[in-house]
Amino acid sequence: xxxxxxxxxxxxxxxxxxxxxxxxxxxxxxxxxxxxxxxxxxxxxxxxxxxxxxxxxxxxxxxxxxxxxxxxxxxxxxxxxxxxxxxxxxxxxxxxxxxxxxxxxxxxxxxxxxxxxxxxxxxxxxxxxxxxxxxxxxxxxxxxxxxxxxx
Length: 151
Hints:
Elements: E1 6-12, H1 18-24, H2 27-37, E2 42-49, H3 51-62, E3 70-76, E4 81-88, H4 89-99, H5 103-118, H6 127-143
Parallel strand pairs: 1-2, 2-4
Antiparallel strand pairs: 3-4
Helix pairs in contact: 2-5, 4-5, 5-6
């Protein structure tokens, strides 16, 4: 499988336990997860944030007053995918622990999920779209050597 080209900016905001999150997100792993989910070349910024920044962004853009695991800001889908993915470190860590996953595996899942959103995939439109997106995520994660994240 030929992977798409990716121009990546990886940023870390003010987050608790920063060393743990940086270790779970080496640049090569972030690049690999995103490239496996791309259908076209892309320029993507990934920003890892704390709870406060995550809540403010979710409140400002989605009118929801809580921090969520991943927010996708998609600006263009062609000729290249242009997007920002914002992942909230405390939420991701909490979910990984609750789901019995490694932090790195959960980050990979959310990077794939956010990248699919950046390309127009949407799981909130109807059940069929949700099932199709979930199945595609499972396939991509299997290519990355990560077991089904929904089990």
